Every structure is written in structure tokens, then in C-alpha cells.
Amino acid sequence: MNISEFKNIIWDYTRKINENTNKIFSPLCEQYGLTMLQVRILMELYKYESHSIGSLAEGIYVAGANISSMCKKLEHMDLLKRVRNQQDERVVTVALTQKGNEIVSRMDKFLNEKILQNIDEKAEETFDDIISGIKKLNDLMQNIVSAGKN
Prior knowledge:
Blueprint: H1 3-32, H2 36-48, E1 50-52, H3 53-60, H4 64-76, E2 80-84, E3 92-96, H5 98-117, H6 123-149
Antiparallel strand pairs: 1-3, 2-3
Helix pairs in contact: 2-5, 3-4
């Protein structure tokens, strides 16, 4: 396989993975009246419990100003709470509310069930293969980014 074919395959599969991820999440987003970005924020908070606005932005690779306004909307929906740091009021910490936690927990359970329904009896081996391939692709991409900085 030449470089051009490899590059095109990576491009095609990246697009396909993105499209399929959107197809999987779209019904969940619609069910709860959320956007994909809002779900990403909630999932990140579910995984790590709380974040500053800055660390949340870094965690999902979105500009801090955009995250701040998204968090305000999610706060109005009673899905997360924002708390100002008493020592430094510029720092805002966000965490899921009980309602937010319940919704994300339901989403997580739904996704786990979908994955289990569509994986064969060699699940552990399959997961390891997928993760290994994704890591190798990410390492290649990081090397390309690093080489471009020099």
C-alpha cells in the first residue's frame, strides 16, 4: 500500500467513525433535548466528576469561551452546576447535578448495552485490537504534528 492509499483510508474511516458515532448518539441527544457537544460535556463530567471551565475545554478540545456558554445552558437545564472558587473568583468549577448524573448514567447504560449486543464472544480480544489500532494511529498523528512544529 502506498502513502496516498493509506492517507485516503485513514480519511475515509475517520469520517465513517464520526458519522456512525453521530448516528449512535443522535437518538440519545434527541431524547434528552441535547446537542452532541452538550453530551460530550456531560460525559466528560460523568467520567471525571468535576472540572474547571479551562480543564473541561481542554478535555473535550473546545475553546474555553464556547464551553462557558454551553455550561450556562446546561446549568439552566439543571444538568450541571457551576461554582466559583472562593479564593479566585475567576475560576469556575462545574459538576453534574443529580438530574445530569441520572441522564448520563442512563446514556452510559444504553451505550454499554448496544456495544455488548454487537460484539462477539471474543470481546476482550476485540477491544484490545481496536484500542491498539487507535493508539497506533494516534501516535502516528502526534508524530506528524510534532514534526510540523520543528
